[in-house]
Structures are given as C-alpha cells and as structure tokens.
C-alpha cells in the first residue's frame, strides 16, 4: 500500500508540473501538513466500515492552485498573490443498500484534508481543514467522463488570526478554529480500472460565523487536479434497499427553535444572544429535494445596541424582535437535509443589517420526526450567527409510494 501511495502522489506532482505550475512546491506543503494528516487515521476506519457489502475504498491526492476572492475591498491588502495547496481524501463508494444511494446516482462519500497556503505567512498564515463530503454524479449513466458535484462542510484551523497588537490588519479571521464550507464541480475521468483523473473548480469559505470579530471570512477559488487510486476490486452493489429514509409525506411543516451568539465591533466586546423561532412549510418534489416558504421570529439582543447607537433606543424587549418571511429550498441526502433560505424582514425596527437575510446549513431528521439543526444566518456576505437548535417535522398528507 505504501508503494501505491508514493506512486499516486508522485504521479500527481508530475501532472501538475506538466500544466505549468512549476512554482508550486508540493513536497514542502506535504511536509508542513503531515502532522495534521495523522488526524485522518482514526476516521479512515470509521468510514471504511460504514458501508456494508463493500471493502472498496479510494485514496485521492489533488494539488490546488487559486486565489483569495476579494468579496470586500477592505481585505485587498491581505492578498499577496496566487495560493497553492493540496488535498488528500479517503473515499468510499456507496453500495446501493440505502434508497438515497440510488436516488443520487450512487454517490461517493469521503473525508477530506485540505492544506492552503495563503501566500501571506505573516498576516494570514496557513489553513488546515478536515471535512466530510459527498460527491454526487450529475448524470445517471456511468460514462468514462462524468460530471460530479461535491458538497462539503467541516472545520478548519487558520494559523494567523486578528491580534490588536501583533496582527491588526487581519480583519478576515478572528479565531484559529473556523467552519469550512466547500462546493466543487469536477469530472471523473477514468484512466484504468485503478486510476481516475479528476480536474475541477472549487469554492471554499472559512469563518467563525461572527462568534468573534472581525469576521469577514476568507473565500478561496481554486483549480484542482486530482488523481484517485482504487484499492480492492469492484463495488458490490446491494440488492437490499433500506427505504427508511423515504420522506413520509408530500406536504410537511417544520417547527424549530435555535439559539446563537455573536459579537459586535470593536473586537473583544460583549457577546450578544439571539433566539430564532421558525416555521417552514415544504412540498417534497422528490426524496432528494423540496421547496417551501416560512416565517422566522428572531429575538437578537444585538439589535438593542444598533438602536442605541442610531439614537433611537429600545423602549421594550419587543423593539429588538424581527419578523421575517422567507422562501425555502432543501436538498436531501437520506436523513440529512441541506437548507437554503432567503428572507425579508417584514417587521424590524433595527435597520443596521438591511431588509434581506439568508440561511444555509445542515439538518438531521431522526425517525421519530425530531430534527437537529446547525445553520448559519447571514445578511448577504456578512455572517450574523450560527443557529444551534431542535425542531419537529409534522407530516400533513401521506404521499404515494413510487418506484426508484
């Protein structure tokens, strides 16, 4: 196995050099990130045993090269040049023993380690990210070249953060630990039964959700050229389908409540508490996705600060409350749901953040209808806070069974 990994890494380096990235010192990057790669070892065992009926797994190595996207002009002074990186993945194919495997064209799941050199060691340093992901084929038929969509959410460690005395210009990152979100469009190009080339384009984001400020976050756009090596033989497709992940009704109502915490400028100031009560209606188009609408009632103590500084102080607790209406969408992967919401404040005395709000994140639905929520609320590119909460799904009308 060690010889295979050495070959895989060496081959990917040669390919990268052939496309003109001679300045990328991959060997140095790998040495710097080696101690963090050890964090993947216990997760490899968990992932390998998670799919019964198949002992197949892949190892992927993908050099990356990109740039920091300047979503705010104020971070322009932090961008010093193009940024190299490397990604190492442990990948498991799905066997089809779950309904969502077949509905998503037999996706692959994995654990990804990313190392990013921001080309600014004094102010931004380096990023180490560890994150689970799912790669969903965009066409049903298996071909030699196949388009893929990756959805990834994990945790990252950024070595340099804001420090009023030693790093005051880093207004992008205020904490070492941050969330890490990545979307990637790539292609699986079959080279042989064991090897697969994977060119792609990715967008990654790291921030702490405004739990500490300043928190403009870092957005990275990268070209990727991965090489995947398959261990063991063909994937054993299961004939037994577990349909317990089927959404039980065409119409549903989700009631949920979540709390969050944020900080306001200047750095090191007080923490503010927020509570959101939400009600969402969804129409399940298919098991894989649903559309809907809803309303949020948000109580955010930071609004009292906004009203005070605007010369219109709050007279009661109702002055800091906001009522928002929203359009909702969610993509479902088994019991995991990935919501995207865009809303408008119908009632809001504070005007600091504008009338539009957004929410993305992840929700997990238990068999009994209980929902576990971890989402991030934002106002366009500015994070408001993370939402940590629980909810319950009410099924309105039983939907008819349908074949896969």
What does this molecule look like?
The chain is mainly beta and 404 residues long. It folds into two domains: 230 residues, Porin (Beta Barrel), CATH 2.40.160; 150 residues, Porin (Beta Barrel). It has five helices and 16 strands. The strands form two sheets. It has an eight-stranded antiparallel barrel with strand order 1-2-3-4-5-6-7-8. An eight-stranded antiparallel beta barrel has the order 9-10-11-12-13-14-15-16. Strand 9 and strand 10 form a beta hairpin. The protein starts with a helix and ends in a 6-residue tail after the last strand.
Q: Can you give me a brief rundown of this structure?
A:
The protein is mainly β. It has 5 helices and 16 strands.
Order of helices and strands: HHHEEHEEEEEEEEEHEEEEE
CATH topology value of the largest domain: Porin
Number of helices: 5
Number of strands: 16
Gap from first CA to last CA: 38 Å
The coarse overall form would be: flat
Alpha-beta classification? mainly beta
Q: Give the fraction of residues assigned to helices.
A: 10-25%
Task: Tell me what portion of residues adopts beta-strand conformation.
Answer: over 45%
CATH class category label of the largest domain: Mainly Beta
Gross CATH architecture of the largest domain: Beta Barrel
| Main pleated-sheet profile | 8 strands, antiparallel, barrel
Query: Which spans have pLDDT < 50 for at least 5 consecutive residues?
Result: 1-53
Using only C-alpha atoms, the radius of gyration works out to: 23 Å
What count of domains describes the coordinates? 2
